[in-house]
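Slide 14.
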Amino acid sequence: MSAKTPLRVLCLHGYRQNAVSFREKTGALRKVLKNRVELVYVTAPLEVPSSAETDNSKESGDKPPPPSAESARGWWFSDAQQRSFHAGQECEASLGLEQSVEVVRAAVREQGPFDGILGFSQGAALVAMLLSMQEQRQEPDLAFRFALIISGFRSACAQHTRFYGEAIATPTLHVFGEQDGVIPIDMSKDLLTVFKEPTVLTHAGGHFVPAASAHKPVYLNFLQTFQK
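Slide 15: predicted structure.
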């Protein structure tokens, strides 16, 4: 696999992260995939208000990122009025999803093509929606051949139920931790039911992207199928 052309994968960070912070948090994964996969990171369009950072501090699984040119960002808000997000919060309509889809479209047009897409937490939930749009041919710019969905979940927003009506056939690797206190394992398992033949990697840890030596064969076995 290493002698072949590296796969290019678009990466979507979690809530209250950004491209810079997520790249830092996936350093171990980049080492595992070195010379095999090129990870390209993009930042969500919605800036999380400082009050929301405090109120939803548990959602990222980490401390708020330090002030920088790219502050804490999100892909959509489950509470449009408060401009905040909680994975388990039921809502009729979200705020910002279309803006986030446009960010992905732009990344594909300007930095693509991409072989696959990777998402973590809220970014993983967005990946599932994007795959649904792709298979329903609602997004002609999207042509991902596979996806890595890490600590993913099914959105609780009623506006998003349309993404879960038909089984998604795109090959996916779902990764989640048994001790995840941010996105409980039951939520990640529930998302599995949306996919036809998902591959699953579970780990004993919490809310992070695992990349220990024991996990490396699972990642590589999944990805080598798509290597040209």
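Speaker note: The chain has seven helices and eight strands.
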